[in-house]
Specification:
This protein is an alpha/beta fold. It is built from 11 helices and 17 strands. The protein has 2 domains: 173 residues, Medium-chain alcohol dehydrogenases, catalytic domain (Quinone Oxidoreductase, Chain A, domain 1, Alpha-Beta Complex); 133 residues, Rossmann fold, CATH 3.40.50.720. The strands form 4 sheets. Strands 3, 4, 5, 8, 9, 16 and 17 form a 7-stranded mixed sheet that branches. It has a 6-stranded parallel sheet with strand order 12-11-10-13-14-15, with helices on both faces. The N and C termini lie close together (12 Å).
Length: 336
C-alpha cells in the first residue's frame, strides 16, 4: 500500500509499505479522509515537540472498516472516525479519567506512525462508528474535540466574556464550543480574512485585530474589565505571553497551544488577579462524543472550515504550499 512519510523537516516522500494483517482486537480502516492539522505543519517544519523522524503524519482520520480481528464488535463497511490518542490505562492520569494526558501516551502521527496511508490498523476501542455524518466532517471531529476539551476544562459560565487568541481551526473550534456553552465570544488574530470568517460564518460576537490597539479594543468591548476566560491557540510564544495581560481579575488563562519554548509572565500581575493558569491537551472520548452530538444538532459547524483539498499522493507537493501563511488555508483535507 502507499504511505506518505515525513523523512525530516521540510521533506516528504511516497513509499510502498506492507498492508497490515488482521490481529485480535484490532481493526483495519481504509482511510478515506485526512485532516491536515497544525501539528502536521509544525512537524513538517521541524517545530513540533514530542517528535522523531521519519514519521507518517496524520491523526485527523475518517474511513471505512476494511477488516476486523477476532473479538471485535464492529462490522466491515461501517463508516468511522479514529480517536488517535492511545493511552496505557494504568498511569496516574488514566486512573483519574485523564487519558488525554496519559504519561505513556502514543499519539498517531506524533509518537507512532499515523494515517497518511491507504490502510491503518488500530485497537478497536479507538475506532468509533458514526452513522449519518459525512466522512468530511468525521475527519474534522478530532480537531474540534481539542476545542471541546479546552472549553469543558475551563468551566466557562453563561453570559461571560471569552477571548480566543488565534483563529486557526483549533481556535475556531474553541470559539464555537464556548458559544455553544452560552458565552460571549471574542476572537483575536492577525489575519483579517479569518476574522471575517469568524464574524460572518461562525456568527461569533466580536473580532479584534491583533497587534497595536488590541488591548484598547478589548478594554472597550468589556467596559475595562477584560476577559474572564482567555484561550490561546496561536502556537506563538510571544502571543502566549501577551495573553496574560488580557485576563480579568479572578479569571482563567487556558493554553491550548504547545510550543518548543519557555513561557514567562509577571508574577505580581498573576497574583494580583488570582489568575488560574491551565494547560489543555488532546481530548477524551467524552469530548469526541460531544463534538458528534453538536455536529448532529447544528450548534457547531465543520464543513465550511474546509477550504482546500488534495490527493494523498500529492502531499509532498501540497503540504509545503499549505504551510505558507499566504496560502489562505483554514482546514485542508486529503482524500484517499
Amino acid at each position: 500500500m502507499k504511505s506518505v512519510v515525513c523523512t525530516q523537516p521540510g521533506e516528504m516522500e511516497v513509499r510502498d509499505i506492507e498492508r497490515p494483517q488482521d490481529r485480535a482486537g484490532q481493526v483495519i480502516v481504509k482511510i478515506k479522509r485526512i485532516g491536515v492539522c497544525g501539528t502536521d505543519i509544525h512537524a513538517f517544519g521541524g517545530n513540533q515537540p514530542f517528535f522523531q523522524y521519519p514519521r507518517v503524519l496524520g491523526h485527523e482520520l475518517s474511513g471505512v472498516i476494511d477488516s476486523i480481528g477476532e473479538g471485535v464488535n464492529l462490522e466491515v463497511g461501517q463508516e468511522v472516525y479514529i480517536v488517535p490518542y492511545m493511552s496505557c490505562g494504568q498511569c496516574i492520569a488514566c486512573r483519574n479519567a485523564k487519558s488525554n494526558c496519559c504519561s505513556n501516551i502514543q499519539v498517531l502521527g506524533v509518537h507512532v506512525d499515523g494515517g497518511m496511508c491507504e490502510y491503518l490498523q488500530v485497537p478497536a476501542e479507538y475506532v468509533i462508528k458514526t452513522d449519518g455524518i459525512p466522512l468530511d466532517q468525521l475527519a474534522v471531529v478530532e480537531c474540534l474535540a481539542i476545542g471541546a476539551h479546552a472549553v469543558r476544562r475551563s468551566e466557562i459560565k453563561v453570559d461571560t466574556d471569552v477571548l480566543v487568541v488565534g483563529a486557526g481551526p483549533i481556535g475556531m473550534g474553541i470559539a464555537q464550543f464556548a458559544k455553544e456553552k452560552g458565552a460571549r465570544v471574542i476572537v483575536m488574530d492577525t489575519n483579517q480574512e479569518r476574522l471575517d470568517f469568524c464574524k460572518n460564518t461562525l456568527k461569533l460576537d466580536a473580532v479584534v485585530q491583533a497587534g497595536e490597539g488590541a488591548t484598547e479594543a478589548l478594554a472597550e468591548l468589556t467596559n475595562n474589565e477584560f476577559i474572564l476566560t482567555v484561550f490561546d491557540a496561536t502556537g506563538n510564544p510571544k502571543a502566549m505571553e501577551a495573553g496574560f495581560k488580557w485576563v480579568a481579575h479572578g479569571g482563567r488563562y487556558v493554553l491550548v497551544s504547545v510550543v518548543k519554548s519557555d513561557i514567562s509572565f509577571s508574577d505580581p500581575e498573576f497574583h494580583k488577579r488570582e489568575m488560574t493558569l491551565m494547560g489543555s491537551r488532546n481530548a477524551t472520548h467524552e469530548d469526541f462524543a460531544h463534538v458528534v452530538s453538536c455536529l448532529r444538532n447544528g450548534s457547531v459547524i465543520a464543513e465550511s472550515m474546509i477550504t482546500h483539498r488534495g490527493a494523498l499522493l500529492d502531499l509532498p507537493t501540497l503540504l509545503p504550499e499549505w504551510s505558507k501563511s499566504e496560502s489562505g488555508v483554514i482546514k485542508a483535507l486529503i482524500e484517499v
